[in-house]
């Protein structure tokens, strides 16, 4: 440790001298730059204090100290000291860049929240700030290292906050920051953030579990010592140089497993954990053989994360042994290098890393993840949706899958074949129709398991449909499907809106082509719309009434639009039923192709289609401006929901007989329920899919022929 200069000690406070002592790995001129950053930061934050009453500058210095323990470079340490200056002081970005260079300014800007912008609520502001930070992190991963260190020190000093702030910050830490630390392989950070978050969110639960862990450890110290000695002795006899250390579960990991795996505290604590650290990868496997000869391994509890690393770069051998005290022993075997990466992840060996030099496995994996984040945000308009996708990807309890070429893809647990298709490529996902898993044909919704060989079958004509969103779990797949559907919906809305506006203009003796471009442009500007397509989509989605827009356009053209009273066109708009996102079919009457129908505009939903005889239409007629005259096109495809009310003789097998008749008529049953039931008779309500009114009539005929039915009719009548 370098001795502090006495004259300097009189000027620099103890906490800055302590930081200097941690920076002995940096050249002297770089340490001086760090001290210069402190002086500028102290002046900028002068007069500011933390909730605890300490001078505010103590916080950024503490953050810098956490990063110094990781051996990070001078620019990161300087940016950590100044990380709140752009947000909370008069110091400008230009001054920052002039004093310490553009890189430091970029890092500080990346960590800075978007407080200067106006948002409708705190959630929106937090989401947009978080998106900004993640994109800055994609450019330079040191942004998130500063943010994690900042959050860690805030969590260590959380006691000064009021109760509601404590809970909000603790929840955010558990939901976002601890998982990010895990995703970056920084297990030491992750573990402390989780425990501090647990203590802040559930203080009583934390206290009870912590006390029980302490008591349990006291009772089993002797057993732990015996197992550790036996492991050390066996490894030495096999000439494997190793360090054996006992592992203790944290309060958060105990609590999480109790909640998620429905296990008792006793079940979770009845496990002995050890870590074996050796010199090289070959010795990992030699150590594995040695411990397997000492205690019997538990079947199917061995995992090789050296050959197949986790998504965050983590490498280790995991095995579970049957111990001498009747309790399982969990053993992790890894090299010292792997141990450093497991603890520090992307921050491991930072001092020796250059941009041109080889990155450790965690750094390489992090870059892959960050590039996928950039792709995701480019296709996601809403910050909240982007954060939702990131959260999904932050909990990758992985399964490992093989492509036909032998490549390995890691996917979150419960991922489906459709997720796998999108992980291969967005185009593969868009055109997927089925999958082969271990050479067996399976549907796209099939959940995958580790070790499976997955091949995706595609067809050029295949496209995503809304039901796919219920099958996928990865953010990439969800974003790609939503983007595709939004594009389709927009196209359909523009086309449908065009037809509706043309019809309304025709009733006024005009047409869209007859409106001068200057008149149309002026109208769009006044309506705060950028393009005609936006106006047409707005009309189709029910946000603007076509008759009103038509009257305004004709009036703006300088002609009287029949006293601006919208006339009614006799021409009906034909629908195929495939107009995605523009049409929806009313649940009160379940209209089918072949029915006489009418449409009513509903804001944000578009046109809701009813049968003409629907009881609710009488009420809707009170708002004639919302009515849209529609009819079925000759070429209608797809399945439509219908309900069938069937009275049956109540005897064994009757349900199966009726269901079989419905299936024989090529109708898919969605749901069935008993409406009424007694000893002699029962009334069943079947919800099914049919292609048209004629198809439903065929279903009813087949049902009536079964001999067990006393009545069958469409519901509602």
TrEMBL record:
Keyword annotations of the record: Hydrolase
Highest taxon in the source lineage: Bacteria
SMART domains documented for this protein: HDc, RelA_SpoT
ACT domain mapped to chain residues: 643-717
Top-level class of the enzyme under EC nomenclature: hydrolase
A Pfam family that the UniProt record links to this protein: RelA_AH_RIS
InterPro entries: ACT-like_dom_sf (IPR045865), ACT_dom (IPR002912), Beta-grasp_dom_sf (IPR012675), HD/PDEase_dom (IPR003607), HD_domain (IPR006674), NT_sf (IPR043519), RelA/Spo_fam (IPR004811), RelA/SpoT_AH_RIS (IPR045600)
Pathway: Purine metabolism; ppGpp biosynthesis; ppGpp from GDP: step 1/1
Enzyme Commission number(s) of this protein: 3.1.7.2
Family matches, as CDD domains: ACT_RelA-SpoT, HDc, NT_Rel-Spo_like, TGS_RSH
Limits of the TGS domain: 397-458
Keyword presence, Hydrolase: yes
Domain HD: 56-155
Catalytic activity: guanosine 3',5'-bis(diphosphate) + H2O = GDP + diphosphate + H(+)
Protein family per UniProt: Belongs to the relA/spoT family.
Known role: In eubacteria ppGpp (guanosine 3'-diphosphate 5'-diphosphate) is a mediator of the stringent response that coordinates a variety of cellular activities in response to changes in nutritional abundance.
Name of the molecule in the record: guanosine-3',5'-bis(diphosphate) 3'-diphosphatase
């Amino acid at each position: 440790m370098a001795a502090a200069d006495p004259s300097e000690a009189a000027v620099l406070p103890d906490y800055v001298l302590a930081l200097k002592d941690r920076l002995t790995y940096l050249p002297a001129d770089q340490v001086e730059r760090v001290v210069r950053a402190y002086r500028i930061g102290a002046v900028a934050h002068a007069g500011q204090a933390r909730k605890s009453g300490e001078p505010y500058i103590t916080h950024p210095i503490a953050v810098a100290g956490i990063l110094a323990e990781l051996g990070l470079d001078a620019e990161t340490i300087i940016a950590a000291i100044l990380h709140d200056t752009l947000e909370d002081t008069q110091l400008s970005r230009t001054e920052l860049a002039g004093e310490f260079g553009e890189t430091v300014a970029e890092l500080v800007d990346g960590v800075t929240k978007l407080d200067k912008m106006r948002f409708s609520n705190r959630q929106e502001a937090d989401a947009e700030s978080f998106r900004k930070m993640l994109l800055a992190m994609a450019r330079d991963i040191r942004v998130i290292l500063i943010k994690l260190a900042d959050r860690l020190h805030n969590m260590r000093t959380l006691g000064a906050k009021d109760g509601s702030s404590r809970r909000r910050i603790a929840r955010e830490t558990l939901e976002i920051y601890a998982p990010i630390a895990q995703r970056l392989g920084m297990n030491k950070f992750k573990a402390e953030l989780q425990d501090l978050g647990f203590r802040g969110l559930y203080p009583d639960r934390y206290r009870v579990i912590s006390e029980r862990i302490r008591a349990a450890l006291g009772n089993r110290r002797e057993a732990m010592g015996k197992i550790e000695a036996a492991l050390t002795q066996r490894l030495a006899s096999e000439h494997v140089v190793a360090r054996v250390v006992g592992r203790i579960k944290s309060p958060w990991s105990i609590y999480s497993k109790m909640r998620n795996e429905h296990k008792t505290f006793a079940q979770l604590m009845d496990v002995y954990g050890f870590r074996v650290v050796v010199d090289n990868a070959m010795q990992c496997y030699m150590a594995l053989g040695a411990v397997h000869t000492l205690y019997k391994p538990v079947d199917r509890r061995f995992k090789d994360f050296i050959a197949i690393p986790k998504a965050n770069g983590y490498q280790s051998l995991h095995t579970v042994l049957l111990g001498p005290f009747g309790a399982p022993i969990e053993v992790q075997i890894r090299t010292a290098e792997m141990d450093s990466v497991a603890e520090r992840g992307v921050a491991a060996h930072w001092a020796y890393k250059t941009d041109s030099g080889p990155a450790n496995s965690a750094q390489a994996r992090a870059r892959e993840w960050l590039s996928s984040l950039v792709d995701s945000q480019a296709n996601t308009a809403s910050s909240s949706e982007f954060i939702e996708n990131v959260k999904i990807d932050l909990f990758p309890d992985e399964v490992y899958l093989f492509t036909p070429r032998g490549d390995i893809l890691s996917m979150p647990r419960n991922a489906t074949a459709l997720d796998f298709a999108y992980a291969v490529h967005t185009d593969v996902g868009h055109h997927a129709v089925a999958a082969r898993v271990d050479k067996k044909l399976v549907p796209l919704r099939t959940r995958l398991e580790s070790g499976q060989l997955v091949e995706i079958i595609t067809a050029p004509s295949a496209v995503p449909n809304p039901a796919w969103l219920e099958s996928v779990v990865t953010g990439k797949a969800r974003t790609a499907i939503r983007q595709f559907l939004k594009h389709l919906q927009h196209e359909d809305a523009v086309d449908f809106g065009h037809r509706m506006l043309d019809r309304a203009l025709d009733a006024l003796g005009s047409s869209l082509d007859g409106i001068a471009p200057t008149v149309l442009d002026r109208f769009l500007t006044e309506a705060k719309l950028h393009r005609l397509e936006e106006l047409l989509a707005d009309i189709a989605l029910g946000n603007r009434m076509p008759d009103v827009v038509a009257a305004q356009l004709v009036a703006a053209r300088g002609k009287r639009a029949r006293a601006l009273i919208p006339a009614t066109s006799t021409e009906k708009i034909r629908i195929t039923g495939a107009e995605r996102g523009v049409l929806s079919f009313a649940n009160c009457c379940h209209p089918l192709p072949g029915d006489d129908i009418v449409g009513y505009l509903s804001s944000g939903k578009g046109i809701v289609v009813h049968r003409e005889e629907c009881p609710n239409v009488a009420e809707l007629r009170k708002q004639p401006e919302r009515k849209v005259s529609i009819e079925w096109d000759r070429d209608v495809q797809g399945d439509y929901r219908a309900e069938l009310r069937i009275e049956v003789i109540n005897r064994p097998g009757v349900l199966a007989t009726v269901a079989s008749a419905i299936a024989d008529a090529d109708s898919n049953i969605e749901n069935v329920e008993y409406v009424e039931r007694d000893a002699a008779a029962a009334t069943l309500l079947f919800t099914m899919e049919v292609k048209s009114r004629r198809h439903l009539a065929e279903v009813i005929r087949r049902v009536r022929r079964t001999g067990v039915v006393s009545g069958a009719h469409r519901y509602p009548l």
